[in-house]
Design brief:
The structure is a single chain. With 397 residues, the chain is α/β, with parallel strands linked by helices. It folds into two domains: 227 residues, Type I PLP-dependent aspartate aminotransferase-like (Major domain) (Aspartate Aminotransferase, domain 2), CATH 3.40.640; 140 residues, Aspartate Aminotransferase, domain 1 (Alpha-Beta Complex), CATH 3.90.1150.10. It has 14 helices and 14 strands. The strands form four sheets. Strands 2-10-9-6-5-3-4 form a seven-stranded mixed β-sheet, sandwiched between helices. The chain has a three-stranded antiparallel β-sheet with strand order 11-12-14. Strand 7 and strand 8 form a beta hairpin. Helix 1 runs antiparallel to helix 8, helix 2 packs parallel to helix 8 and helix 3 packs across helix 7. The longest helix has 19 residues. The protein starts with 11 loop residues before the first strand and ends in an 8-residue tail after the last helix. The relative contact order is 0.17. The chain binds pyridoxal-5'-phosphate. Pyridoxal-5'-phosphate binds next to helix 3 and helix 4.
Length: 397
């Protein structure tokens, strides 16, 4: 931190892919190569879809090449028009999927405790142009599905969930996946369950699933005739193989994330001004370790703490700074799309830091990261002077 070797000789990354059994992935891919079935609704894809539907507790799963395209197909299949209210506090893809489909994302604020969209803020933004609410289970913490469901019903709106972070989390007493018209998972390499790249729409609505299934395959129906406009959004067999192997290890992955989370909680307890966020310990899959920095109490800002961690080879991230409403192209959108400043979103985006976790980190590493944080806070004035004297390096992205 203030001279000497970094605490870690190799960088610790947020979202380093978890691959517990590489040989199992290769075995499944080998089967696909032997069959010469590499894509196009092969047996691995069908098995993966069955397995995802079972985890989500729903009847239908349509797997795709990624979650962003899955959301694009979903909003088409739902026939949405005009405006969709969504939280600004999310990964930019939630907004891009709408904007790319010619819809207007309207950004609401979040509950500062959970990081999830605040139903009161949603209600204030509903207009005659609104056709849907898009909720996000931020960092695996369940969004307030019951309130959103009644709000949507009251105003005649559709409701869907960007559940990219939240496979195996629970929401309102049921697994994530069965709420609203549909939910969308991501199986990107950095997510809890990974398929290299991948996504899925899960739903209890068979007609909706059929439309998404056709749209994924150039608009073709099961019999090969073209019934509608479509894209190529198919998931390949090697991706499904990775996804299946990853799902086979889901219980072990969840236990491992829980254990890392508990090590962080123990290591950070007593560090003034740096708090581990854990608003739904029993419902969240805890696949993200998120701390909130109170600059007054810690004597350091989030950015100063991040600079220290980066110097020590802990590549903590400020996801999802600065919020969609302050990112291109949305920050130039007409005022009515963000009618007032989003206080909670803006506060979170200055205060949160996502720390490395997962299979590539040992419990002792989590403990060591906490020691670095504790030491930085103890020596805050010196760290502050160090941080302000450096030529600001571009933060790792
Ligand atoms: C990762 C992520 C996405 C995008 O998923 P892809 O599969 O990479 O397209 C969407 N929303 C959120 C909240 C994400 O974290």
């Amino acid at each position: 931190m203030l001279g000497g070797a970094p605490a870690f000789s190799e960088p610790l990354h947020v979202g380093r892919p978890s691959v517990l059994r590489p040989h199992r992935v290769l075995e499944l891919i080998g089967g696909a190569l032997d069959r010469r079935v590499l894509t196009h609704g092969g047996p691995l894809l069908r098995e993966f879809e069955r397995a995802v539907a079972a985890v989500a507790g729903v009847a239908h799963c349509v797997a795709t090449c990624n979650a962003t395209v899955a959301m694009q197909l979903l909003v088409r299949a739902l026939g949405l028009r005009g405006e969709v209210v969504m939280p600004s506090w999310t990964f930019i893809a939630t907004a891009h999927a709408l904007q790319w489909e010619g819809l207007t994302p309207v950004f609401c604020d979040v509950d500062p405790r959970t990081g999830n969209l605040d139903p009161r803020s949603v209600a204030e933004l509903i207009t005659p142009r609104t056709s849907a609410i898009a909720a996000v289970h931020m960092w695996g913490v369940p969004a307030p599905a019951p309130q959103l469901t009644s709000l949507a019903r009251e105003h005649g709106l559709r409701l869907y969930f960007d559940s990219a972070h939240a496979i195996a989390s629970r929401c309102d007493g049921r697994p994530v996946g069965g709420h609203g018209a549909a939910e969308v998972f991501s199986f990107h390499a950095t997510k809890l369950v990974n398929a290299f790249e991948g996504g899925a729409v899960v739903t209890g609505d068979g007609d909706l699933a059929e439309r998404v299934r056709a749209m994924r395959d150039y608009g073709r129906n099961g019999d090969g005739t073209v019934g509608m406009l479509g894209l190529n959004a198919k998931m390949t067999e090697p991706s499904a193989a990775m996804g299946l192997a990853s799902l086979e290890d889901l219980d072990e992955l969840l236990a491992l994330h829980r254990e890392r989370h508990e090590h962080y909680a123990a290591g950070l307890c007593g560090v003034p001004g740096v708090r581990l966020r854990d608003p739904a310990p029993l419902e969240s899959n805890r696949s993200y370790v998120v701390v909130e920095v109170d600059p007054e109490a810690a004597g350091l800002t989030r950015d100063e703490l991040r600079a220290v961690l980066h110097a020590e080879n802990v590549l903590a991230r400020d996801h999802f700074h600065p919020g969609c409403h302050r990112s291109e192209p949305y920050r130039r959108a007409p005022r009515r799309h963000t009618p007032r400043s989003l206080t909670a979103t803006e506060a979170l985006s200055e205060r949160v830091l996502v720390l490395p976790t997962g299979t590539s980190l040992r419990n002792e590493d989590a403990g060591r990261v906490c020691e670095v944080i504790g030491e930085a806070v103890r020596r805050a004035p010196a760290v502050r002077a160090w941080a302000s004297s450096r030529t600001p390096a571009a933060p790792h992205r």
